[in-house]
Amino acid sequence: MSYSEQAPRHVGIIMDGNGRWAERRSQPRVFGHRAGAKAVRSVTEEATRMGIGQLTLFAFSTENWKRPPEEVKALMLLFGRYLRGEEERLLNNGIRLRAVGRLHELPKDVHNELERVMTSTQNGSALTLCLAINYGGHTEIADACKKLAERATSGAIRAEDIDEQAIQDALYQPDMPPLDLVIRTGGEMRLSNFLLWQAAYAELYLTPTYWPDFDGEQLRVAIADFHARNRRFGGLNEPQRKVG
Ligand code: FPP
Fold this sequence. Notes:
The protein contains eight helices and six strands; from the N terminus they run H-E-H-H-E-H-E-H-E-H-H-E-E-H. The chain is α/β, with parallel strands linked by helices. Helix 3 (29-50) packs parallel to helix 4 and helix 4 runs parallel beside helix 5.
């Protein structure tokens, strides 16, 4: 079987540990974020080689605004620089950039840059790279509820027609596939409000490696681990199906 036949359709990564990586080197936190941006390139290239359909990276949460203003500012500058600096590489590698989150609340230049690169890369078919930026799972579900309420008020849908598909259709990216695998670096064991709806049946892979040290090789290890999992989606394995 070729790698692409085996590759998961949608992998999400909670990129944690930049600050601690920098601290270990007696460097400011932003030094870790810059190193984290380099890891994004390595992991994205490997994901493309492996034939993963979509890679969604948790770049900035709705809660990250609580960080010191200078760190938030440095991250926003880094996102802008990443978008400008990587556009050509994304185009050359057939990578389509997308984003989820309350994008309109981002600094105007970052929002504009995101929109511009999403448009220029829209025909990429080798990999969809999605940045979750100013993203929160609760916020996404609350925003979807608001949309559904508006649709019901305007008469476009009836309240009794609201089902799982209607909710999916009201999310930021209605065509986003469910997550097969969520990788979290940095040693913590939580989802931190990442793609809560889409992660319902995701397998979890947790590693103590800090994000700047995570690379393509480690992505391969995570995917190999994923392939060894037994996914039942709430059902049973074949031999367990015999009742009594
Ligand atoms: C969490 O580590 C990381 C973030 C909040 C920012 C993620 C951003 C990057 C990886 C930078 C580049 C990204 C792109 C898409 C260009 P932390 O700061 O919470 O680390 P800590 O837990 O060790 O303090």
